[in-house]
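tool=predict chain=A
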Amino acid sequence: QVQLVESGGGLVQPGGSLRLSCAASRSIRSYKGMGWYRQAPGGQRELVARFTSGGRDIYTDAVKGRFTISSDIAKNTVYLQMNSLKPEDTAVYYCNADPTFTYWPNPGVYWGQGTQVTVSS
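tool=predict ok
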């Protein structure tokens, strides 16, 4: 099993930046099954960004050009750099893992506890 812990959320003004981190309990071996999802109050959990086996990262249209997913495999950590934040980015952000890349395009079975991101003036 994989345990995931997110951090880096907080309150930021519109136009600001945050970097989220997702630390895994053991080596993730490959970043291909890792991704970020978010859920706004009253909304459904949606894909934000995810690595793919094809070598091109996937981003939801709402964050393209503003968010970047990256990884440091040696540190068992995946990041989400969020720039030019908007109020509509306000949500709980979750790290997700599908170690065997089994469930694509659906999320894997491992989730972090979530970290709150609030964009407000």
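The longest strand covers residues 18-24. The two ends are 40 Å apart (CA to CA).
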